[in-house]
Inverse folding.
């Protein structure tokens, strides 16, 4: 078992604070039949694309790079953009002003990145659904692929870093608020594409 699980570290607190929001999002996406056919799946990819577009600048943030292992390698905007191209779809129109720029409040950004990284863990299940539609890690479902070193290891190195970053209580509250905001944003995008 992960040490953070035993000691109830920051990641565990973050997970506990957001798990109900995650479950509602999961149910919203699955009840919309996101994996029922390619047309519905395409809408899911448009949602994912919009989310990753809004956080993409974080992956080039030097302060975050110093705190998190292999930040560049975790970037998935290129993959999800390619998935849209594979499916012959256009991105959603950009809603401005939205998304992160080159500067960000670091605790808030950590919360958003937690949501993006965690979604790649759940993607182990989602890629199996996408495969039933004839899609794969090399066509249409690239952004759901695991890291070369494995999803589990990639996730453990992220959560270990999250647990070891020195921040105070007020900053940790901003991490949690950032994660909640990210889930809220993805939920709004899900409502938009599946309305
Ligand atoms: C229908 C869609 C989804 C399903 C079925 C799903 C399912 C899952 C599952 C099974 C896990 C746990 C994986 C494990 O512990 O091995 C997980 C984790 C997670 N998912 Fe999802 N997910 C979905 C969508 C999303 C989306 C759209 C996001 C955010 C953009 C997201 C964010 C997360 C996060 C942050 C975690 C990590 C929780 C933690 O352990 O701290 N999920 N998901």
């Amino acid at each position: 078992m992960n040490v953070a699980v035993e000691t109830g570290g920051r990641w565990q607190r973050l997970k506990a604070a957001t798990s109900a929001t995650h479950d509602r999002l999961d149910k919203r996406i699955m009840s919309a039949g996101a994996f029922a056919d390619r047309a519905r799946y395409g809408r899911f990819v448009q949602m994912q694309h919009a989310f990753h577009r809004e956080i993409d600048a974080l992956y080039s943030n030097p302060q975050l790079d110093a705190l998190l292992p292999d930040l560049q390698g975790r970037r998935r905007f290129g993959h999800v953009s390619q998935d849209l191209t594979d499916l012959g779809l256009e991105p959603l129109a950009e809603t401005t002003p939205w998304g992160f720029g080159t500067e960000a409040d670091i605790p808030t950004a950590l919360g958003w990145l937690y949501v993006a990284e965690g979604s790649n863990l759940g993607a182990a299940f989602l890629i199996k659904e996408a495969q039933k539609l004839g899609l794969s890690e090399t066509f249409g479902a690239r952004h759901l692929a695991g890291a070369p070193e494995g999803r589990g290891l990639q996730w453990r190195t992220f959560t270990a870093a999250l647990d070891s970053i020195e921040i105070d209580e007020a900053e940790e509250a901003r991490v949690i608020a950032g994660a909640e905001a990210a889930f809220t944003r993805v939920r709004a995008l899900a409502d938009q594409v599946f309305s």
About this structure: The domain at 10-194 is CATH 1.20.910.10 (Heme Oxygenase; Chain A). The CA atoms of residues 34 and 40 lie 5 Å apart. The chain has one domain: 10-194.
